[in-house]
């Protein structure tokens, strides 16, 4: 079920859906998505679908992980510092950690963060910093990121995330409630430029933290 052939089939599907970045595709082929799921669901790890990780949250669909990562690599090619909002299982974090220098990731549900930390440590990732906090406020006011990726949808782009976007930095974030759109915001010399990417379905960006 977690065989090489099953993984290759997933990669083929991502290509058919328009993912072109070979580094993203190669990395997703070699990253064990099943490790980021509870055992009862691990046999479904290489289906192109989102899957439950507890606490009403989901591990993002592989296509959307690939798409968001590809957007960051295309529009912020020299990015080193990357902020992720919504660590969840840690799978997207692992993909980012394989492509960018230093990943900072915020999660509001402590038990999810604990599990993600354990998995990322076991898999040997050393360039990931995790924080239990409300991602509406980004990482901290005195830090700026070349790229920010949110795996949860607010109603509008939080100002704090824009404040933490470095010059030429790129934010990729789903926006909306019942109907959501993936948007990309670039911090250009002329100000923030927003581009709508495609309709998506994410869990909501909630306020506060849970122990
Ligand atoms: N990329 C993750 C996605 C998990 S779902 C994965 O593939 O596993 C989105 C995550 O965002 C959930 O874990 C949820 O708890 C978290 N989240 C929601 N609102 C948040 C907030 N305000 N701050 C930090 N994390 C938040």
UniProtKB/TrEMBL annotation:
<dbReference type="InterPro" id="IPR029063">
    <property type="entry name" value="SAM-dependent_MTases_sf"/>
</dbReference>
<dbReference type="Pfam" id="PF01135">
    <property type="entry name" value="PCMT"/>
</dbReference>
<keyword id="KW-0489">Methyltransferase</keyword>
<protein>
    <recommendedName>
        <fullName>Protein-L-isoaspartate O-methyltransferase</fullName>
        <ecNumber>2.1.1.77</ecNumber>
    </recommendedName>
</protein>
<dbReference type="InterPro" id="IPR000682">
    <property type="entry name" value="PCMT"/>
</dbReference>
<keyword id="KW-0949">S-adenosyl-L-methionine</keyword>
<keyword id="KW-0963">Cytoplasm</keyword>
<feature type="active site">
    <location>
        <position position="60"/>
    </location>
</feature>
<comment type="function">
    <text>Catalyzes the methyl esterification of L-isoaspartyl residues in peptides and proteins that result from spontaneous decomposition of normal L-aspartyl and L-asparaginyl residues. It plays a role in the repair and/or degradation of damaged proteins.</text>
</comment>
<comment type="similarity">
    <text>Belongs to the methyltransferase superfamily. L-isoaspartyl/D-aspartyl protein methyltransferase family.</text>
</comment>
<keyword id="KW-0808">Transferase</keyword>
């Amino acid at each position: 079920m977690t065989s090489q052939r099953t993984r290759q089939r997933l990669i083929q599907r991502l290509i058919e859906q328009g993912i072109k970045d070979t580094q993203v595709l190669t990395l997703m082929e070699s990253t064990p998505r099943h490790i980021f799921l509870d055992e009862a669901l691990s046999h479904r790890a290489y289906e192109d679908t989102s899957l439950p990780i507890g606490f009403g949250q989901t591990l993002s669909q592989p296509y959307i992980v690939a798409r968001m990562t590809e957007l960051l690599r295309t529009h912020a090619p020299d990015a080193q510092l990357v902020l992720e909002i919504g660590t969840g299982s840690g799978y997207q974090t692992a993909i980012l950690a394989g492509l960018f220098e230093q990943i900072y990731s915020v999660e509001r549900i402590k038990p999810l963060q604990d599990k993600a930390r354990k998995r990322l440590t076991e898999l040997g990732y050393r360039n990931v910093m995790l924080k239990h906090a409300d991602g509406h406020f980004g990482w901290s006011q005195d830090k700026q990121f070349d790229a920010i990726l949110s795996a949860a949808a607010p109603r509008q782009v939080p100002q704090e995330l824009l404040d933490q976007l470095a010059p030429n930095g790129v934010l990729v974030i789903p926006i909306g409630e019942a109907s959501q759109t993936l948007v990309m915001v670039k911090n250009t010399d002329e100000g923030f430029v927003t581009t709508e990417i495609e309709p998506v379905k994410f869990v909501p960006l909630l306020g506060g933290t849970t122990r």
